[in-house]
TrEMBL record:
Keyword Ion transport: no
EC number(s) reported in the record: 1.1.1.133
GO biological process annotation, one example: dTDP-rhamnose biosynthetic process
SUPFAM superfamilies per UniProt: NAD(P)-binding Rossmann-fold domains
Taxonomy, superkingdom: Bacteria
GO MF annotations in UniProt: dTDP-4-dehydrorhamnose reductase activity
Protein family: Belongs to the dTDP-4-dehydrorhamnose reductase family.
Name the UniProt record assigns to this protein: dTDP-4-dehydrorhamnose reductase
Chemical reaction(s) catalysed: dTDP-beta-L-rhamnose + NADP(+) = dTDP-4-dehydro-beta-L-rhamnose + NADPH + H(+)
UniProt remark on cofactor binding: Binds 1 Mg(2+) ion per monomer.
Gene this protein is translated from: rfbD_1
InterPro entries documented for this protein: dTDP_dehydrorham_reduct (IPR005913), NAD(P)-bd_dom_sf (IPR036291), RmlD-like-bd (IPR029903)
Residues of the RmlD-like substrate binding domain: 1-280
Length: 284
């Protein structure tokens, strides 16, 4: 099967290219700019692919606070236009969304049916995308994932490795708990879902996050331990690390539905972390 992927340089798109090999066509910004909904819809209308995956997004969470209009087009309106174009052609449309659609209350893992209430502009823009896609009328899957990391692009793992080389001590929030997820595992899941949906399996909204849940500080600690970095790490409350965008305290994702419906199990982020550290040359 040929799968059309929006995104080329991003973490998930890069891994999709690896998983799909010659069977995926990844489009960069020069070929499909998500700030132009109609142009992206036109690309889908002209494709002979058998499924479409959108792995591109405005992902700069803090910057989005001052660029909500652009984030809303890229993460909201354009995915909607893409989904409508895919629906017209009868192509399954797969899309990636985020734990940041939730407000982070409580400590129970979020289920797909739980109430969404984003705390920040990025989360609102991603929710808009979910709503537009669901209303488009075609076969779709929305995979809500979280805390994505890989050997390429920007992510928390690479930030921590960089900062630990520059500083003797680091302070990292320990009252935000969630599911670090290897981009490779997301790409594998999307690939299997695309195949199943092409065969007629219904989609829907699904959660997919690495287990076990951990705080950002706990994640940082695991990164330093596994990479053999010697840095003094202090856990701090969110109030001591002010950022433009508010982030949810509870980002735990309940991933049982995806396993029940597609047989896809949530990954263990620790194994994924070891793989990424190997790829980065941090460990043998
Ligand atoms: N990163 C994370 O922690 C999480 C991500 N997600 C979601 O997963 C998906 C993939 O994220 P991830 O792989 O981490 O993304 P990255 O941040 O690694 O990359 C974003 C990608 O989107 C592209 N992009 C941004 N704006 C545009 C535009 N206007 N036109 C065309 N392309 C554009 C970028 O291209 P360019 O290089 O040209 O800028 C880049 O390829 C997204 O939907 C994201 O919302 C969900 C949960 C967590
Ligand atoms: C660099 C740094 C960050 N932090 C905190 C800030 C924040 O609460 C947390 C993570 O910071 P980041 O900026 O990497 O995280 P952030 O960009 O918010 O990551 C999010 O990205 C979007 C795209 C998503 O969809 C989410 O699932 C999530 O992965 O760590 C510290 O406490 N100390 C530090 O030194
Ligand atoms: Mg970030």
């Amino acid at each position: 099967m040929t799968v059309l992927v929006f995104g080329k340089t991003g973490q998930v798109a890069t891994e999709l290219a690896r998983v799909g090999g010659g069977d995926v066509l990844c489009l960069g910004r020069d070929e499909a700019d998500l700030s132009d909904p109609e142009a992206c819809a036109a690309v889908i209308r002209g494709t002979d692919a058998t499924a479409v995956i959108n792995a591109a997004a405005y992902t700069a969470v803090d910057k989005a606070e001052d660029a909500e209009a652009l984030a809303t087009v890229v993460n909201g309106e354009t995915p909607g236009a893409m989904a409508r174009a895919a629906a017209e052609k009868g192509l399954p449309f797969l899309h990636v969304s985020t734990d940041y659609v939730f407000d982070g209350t409580g400590d129970v893992p979020w289920r797909e049916t739980d109430k969404v209430a984003p705390l920040n502009a990025y989360g609102r823009s991603k929710l808009r995308g979910e709503q537009e896609i669901a209303a488009a009328g075609g076969a779709y899957a929305i995979l809500r994932t979280a805390w994505v990391f890989s050997a390429h692009g920007n992510n928390f793992v690479k930030t921590m490795l960089r900062l630990s080389a520059e500083r003797d001590s680091l302070r990292v929030v320990e009252d935000q708990v969630g599911c670090p997820t290897p981009a490779r595992a997301i790409a594998d899941a999307l690939w299997r879902m695309a195949g199943a949906m092409r065969e007629g399996q219904p989609g829907g909204v699904y959660h997919f996050g690495g287990q076990p849940a951990v705080s950002w500080c706990g994640f940082a600690q695991a990164i330093f331990e596994r990479a053999g970095r010697d840095v003094a790490l202090a856990g701090i409350p969110t109030a001591e690390f002010p950022t433009p965008a508010k982030r949810p305290a509870n980002s735990r994702l309940d991933c049982t539905a995806l396993e029940a419906d597609f047989g896809i199990k949530a990954p263990d982020w620790r194994a994924g972390l070891d793989e990424v550290l190997r790829e980065l040359g941090e460990v043998a």
